[in-house]
Queue: 2 jobs
Job 1
Amino acid sequence: MSKPPLKPETIAAQAAGAVDPAGAGVVPGIQPATTFLRGADNALLKADKIYGRDDNDTVRHAEEVLRQLEGAAGTLLFPSGMAAVVALFRTVPNGGRIVMQTGIYWGVTKWAQDFCARREITLDQVDCSDLAALQTACEGPANLVWIEVPSNPWLKITDISAAANLAHRTGAILAVDGTAAPPGMTNALELGADIVMHSATKAINGHTDVLAGVLSCADVESATWQAIALDRHDAGAIIGPFEAWLLMRGMRTLPLRLERMSQNAQAIAEFLTTHENVEAVWYPGLPDHPGHDIARRQMLGGFGYLLSAIVKGGEPAALAAIGRLNLFHRATSLGGVESLVEHRHSIEPHSGIPPGLLRLSIGIEHVDDLIADLQQALEG
Ligand code: PLP
């Protein structure tokens, strides 16, 4: 009788069965070796261990946990989220075409614009959460459609299944940046995406102490995945074993953390909508969010930890409010156990982000404390 598939909580808590067989420890060890032995006959002692760049057990274990959580055919780790993004974009040939969502993580937009200009790749940026706009963009041939769901910091929700159909009709693959909806929250591959990317620096690790990125695919035989795997091996964008080990440790509590973060974020979003000094709240868990119905269908593990609030009074009021916060750390990034706040307009002033917008990454603190902190900061 075949075993029923394990639930994400079990996969994560037991690190997908990764133990330390040599020391009989229930926690896997770290393999720091950069090279592996050959015997007196010059044969490798272990066929899958030649050199540290691609043959590290700690990295493989961390990839296996992520592969299982994502329900993927293959998973590769990279030393940062950006390194993972770049590994995928580099598979697009010179002269090709990319359709990319507007209003996504600024670092990806900026890098992709430079990259496409250098490589004579046509880059069409459209609001992919607007399926009519995406459909128009997909009328011409393309190699890659890139969406971010939910998007950072606009919290737009794109229908992943519909986007996959549109991308496939034009001959493109659909890749999803799921950083704000980690594995277990949205199953992008099951919804039809070909590749899903996460900045594992964020909630996957969750403790704000590891930089990492991950790509997972639906088909390891696809030309794109083969090119990514070859390029990682040959070009050497490899995560170190210590980071991979920390990541595996962080992931043991991923489903638990996501549950608490989403509950907290929902309560905070609801609180902010009632506050007289807040003009708007963008959070897919709010029933009046334009993407709420899609989010209900595709965010099966909660509506996430990221939200944006627009403070009345524009930039001065927003900066004054974050200056008064005591518990929320003023810092970039997201997805950690501690709550963070950022004034994104100061970081990317020309990207159309409202000057009064505060991006909040909600952690696992007690929600009453977080709400009290926001209340006193908004009321001055
Ligand atoms: N994608 C999103 C949505 C992000 O928010 C970030 C970083 O903030 C990245 C990608 C890049 O990840 P990393 O910082 O790990 O390189």
Job 2
Amino acid sequence: MALEKRVLTGITTSGVPHLGNLAGAILPAIEASRHQFTSSFLFLADYHSLIKSQDPAMTHNSSFEIAASWLACGLDPNKVTFYRQSDIPEIMELAWILSCVTAKGLMNRAHAYKAATAINKEKEVPDLDKGVLMGLFNYPILMAADILAFNADQVPVGGDQKQHLEMARDIAARFNYLYGEVFKLPEAVINSETGVLPGIDGQKMSKSYNNTIPIFLNKESLLKMIKKIKTNSLEPGIPKDSNNCTIFKLYKAFASEGQIQDLEVRYQKGIGWGEAKDILYSELESKIEPIRERYELIRHDKRHLEHILIEGAVKAREVSSKIISDVREAVGIKGFC
Ligand code: TRP
């Protein structure tokens, strides 16, 4: 039991999941969760999503879409504790307690907050905090609570989250210094950037660049999207470089070794871009089709999904309720006899 590493990560429930998420986060996380010496906690960070969305329907739908996507992609709820943040009251409770040991100055240094004030500065807005919500400011504390409520050993995240993990460690260390060793210091496991996929314009695939290929397009829209991928203007028959080619990079993320080598040879022989796109389309469609079918089944049986999440929350709370009771005890919040 003690040998088992606890690996925890959260997914903010905003936006539509795309191929970059699939190759860079979803499939690797599912693969890692099959590792027998880890116990994995994976949750939908729905309270985090409120910082960006104040549209209830959108908040609700995104949460559903993301939960359904992970299951459709093969997440096994028997192997992973899969839950919604909002079903774990201990996280909210801990967030408050942690905010009482966290210096405001530490939060002033958070990238997301600094970026928001920098925009005001650039626009010469006199109040640099104009439009900044407390949710955005407190975000790193909520994220620390997500992690520390489970005393996670490792937290796989993208490089953009590195600072949040450092803050979670700082907050945990401060708490331990004041109240005794309650928390483990979580270790960030930064996902390698080599797996980052390009979007249809060749830049990193990202919601903010508006260049994503969503996972759940129907066949026709998927093909249309692939046809939009930017290429150079080399004619068929002219040898092409597979390095730095968006089509090739996308293909490589999903095809087998043998298939990749075959396409490489065809590039050298001067494949036409139209044909290369058809090959990419067939490969993606073959991978997405079963996922799309499972997604539809989940969409038609929302009660099943709800049941999975409720069960996940019960399992998760077996851990978090124990930790929060240690925390309360440590800070002196407890019954009188
Ligand atoms: N902030 C993370 C992101 O945007 C999501 C997240 C919320 C998270 N809470 C977490 C990740 C706790 C790891 C651990 O990607």
